[in-house]
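Replying to the earlier thread about multi-chain prediction with a worked example.

Input:
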Amino acid sequence: MRSPRDPAAPVRAAGLLLAIVVLWPLAVIGEFHPWVLFEAQNLKVMGGFLSAFLPPDTSGEFLAHLGRATLETLAIATAGIALAFVIAVPLAMATTRALSISRIGPGAGQRRGEYLRAALRMLLVVLRGLPELVWALLFVRVFGLGPAAGVLALGLTYGGMLAKVYGEILESGDERPARALLEAGGGRVQALCYGLLPGASQELTSYTVYRWECAVRASVVMGFVGAGGLGQLMDQSMRMLNGGEAASILFTFLLLVLAADALSAVLRRQLGDAGGYGGALAFGPRTLVWLALLGSALVASYGWLDLGFSALLTRDAMASMASYFMSFFPLDLSAPWLAKVARGSLETVAISALGTLLAAACGLLLALPACGRYGQAAEQATRFLLNALRSVPELVWATLMALAAGLGPFAGILALALHTSGVLGRLFAEALQNAPSRPRDALLEAGSPAAAAFLYGTLPQVSPQLIAYSLYRWEMNIRMAAILGFVGAGGLGQLLYVELSLFHHAQASTVIAAMLLLSIAVDAASAWLRRRLGSVTA
Amino acid sequence: MFHFSRRLALKGVLACALATVFLNTATATAADAVLRVSAIPDEAPTELQRKFAPLGKYLEKELGMKVSFVPASDYAAVVEALASDKLDLVWLGGFTFVQASIRTKGTAIPLVQREEDARFTSKFITADANIRTLADTRGRVFAFGSPSSTSGHLMPRYFLMQDGINADTDFKNVAFSGAHDATLAFVASGKADAGVLNASVWKKLVEQQKVDPKVRVIATTPPYFDYNWTVRGDLDPALIKKIAAAFLKLDAGNPEHAEILALQRATKFIPTKKDNYDGIEQAAKAAGLLK
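Result:
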């Protein structure tokens, strides 16, 4: 009896079959028709638009607009992160187990404390479960026109995100000092400042800076629903198919993202250097300078934007906000509407899953030259390509792809795939670089071809990491896929945009609920898959 | 020393954050002697600003108060802003007026309209040689303007429905370009196979020779009431009277007025009333856009 060449063959075949069974209907729902890219009609539309890119619009009046919009974008991001910080700190303190007093003793408050934390955690899920764009769309309606909506939307979503991550960072460190302080009768603030922060401050600051960088990108996107800044300008130029203006804006945008990237890298390196004893932040003149800069950036941002939050604090404004909020209830759960929302949800899932899968494949292909396998020149060129791909937000890719592939979900798949390829390609390249090279070298020396050496020597070592990265991106992409419809790229977005425009709030809130459920479901599915794959490979 | 200074730093950051929030609330200004004007963004925002500038100056002179134009990028945001007293005078379409009327519980007052608005129409356009009638648009990509637009969405959808074409099910895909001039760009580029825009913007674009020769009109809707200038109901009645009078006084014979009227594409302004828009409300209900 001959043993099979590959003992794992049945398992692999079953896996492949399962993947096809799951992906096939998704491809049908997502209208995955790559050939439309080469249809004469679509080529002409795209060609016409791209040829208008040159020369970029450099008229004085337009550049003045552009400059103002760029500053506004930066200010929205900075003010938004500041607001997020103010929201996140108390929420993180309340939700982190590391600072729970009731958890220590057997007192009566133990259960109550746990319920309170669970309730607050649910609030965080809602805050960050909805894409900032949806918050922005709602706020544009309530607070009117302009950047205030963007700042608030960023503040809420990022507040939810920061609070969750702050809480996790605080719990992941050494909890004993804080516990000792609490047990000795110290308050929460003292336990935080002297028990937890010394160990965690560097990571906390680093994450906050990273989020600011994300906020710059996000604030651009929010302009698409009228929340000011570069995005608003981009939306207008894209709608009018004004290639010259679009080119100038895209270029400015790339520069801005790269600059934010670089600044964030410098800041984080500074933090790394500044790590004094025990990894804690040393406080010196340099810190003072940074704090002064931070303070003035904040003041400048709020000053520039003229947000007029005080108008929100009047009784009338509160009442109108409350009635606006209440108009979203009860949800429309009638059968025909649910069917429509379900259809949109399926499309959204298809867009996110196929887009991420496509991106993982392209990302891996691009990661090979990007990790320096084919020489210096190829490495530099692919790295630049990856940066360019991920600097352009999904929503902007979606407007472009709606030209290249026609309106509909396929444009959304392509948009997600392009942006995510850039993100995953970079991460994959890092993973490949860090993979030990000895198994591959051994195979090469034994005379196996380079492709086989890669497939059997390198890939098995990095694949769990690559899959984990891809699943994380899928969690982000489901939120993105939900809003691509704003520019006509399929999914739930267009439904939400139209219903909100028509003041059909009951219908809109069903869509919003569906978005929330989708993002929670995908988070859970992705966590489950990661656990499964982790246990398989371990 | 080490701990002490870090605590100071933390407090500093917190104080900064709080201070900016509160400073900001304290310096907000009251908008008393300013008439806040806006318009639904049915055309590119730069075009709206250009159209409004001379009218704003004229109103400032006639009313004896400052007039500021608040640019908007979203139809529904204008309606919501009027309903929450953030705007005083707005240029609305027929459907947005009906929405505003509902959202203000009937207090919003329509003042004046252009003579043209009493018999307004929309044009169905295409750049595809194979599309000759409305029926040919079935199964194709169709572009409306904004979902809240009267002449770019509601009335065309209503008349399509009367012709037996259901916009929700009979097109391959429906795009919302957001504005009338953007709809033309969608159709001219082929991003959409056919689309619909209001006759007034179409006429202007043709006169300015901004229309690609391939693009042609395949159908025109029957006439209906459209745009008007609306004020919020709790504005000072004396001021409301002055605003209406200023519009009605505009006379094409006066060269200064002629420029304003030309930019508004109006021969003259005439008074309007709520009943004029009952037809729009019926159509919106029939088309399922109003519940």
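The two ends of chain A are 31 Å apart (CA to CA).

Feel free to reuse this layout for your own posts.
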